[in-house]
Amino acid sequence: MAFYVEYTVSAAADEKFEMPVSDEESGYTVPLTETDAPVVTAGALPIRSGVFGSSAEEARKAAEEIIAHSKASEAKLYEDGDNSDQMGAGTLIASYAEGVGWTDR
Question: Which residues of the chain have pLDDT under 50?
Fold first, then answer.
């Protein structure tokens, strides 16, 4: 089974994330100074990251390491046999809240 952790990274209060949008240059990062593509701004970015683990408990431990190095205070852990990159895909097995830890679903 494959496990995925999902969380949101928020920009600083007085900043936004800026991303160029170009179908011609999809699939890799282009510095804003090197493209005339339209720029989209966002206050937060959703993240879905694969976590290694042969069990839900191992996946929780791996997900906590990821969360600890992010700016996220909440996360969700999914079990997804289809290995989808779509947010919310799979079965929600646990939720994480900073200061509380994991709650099974």
Answer: none
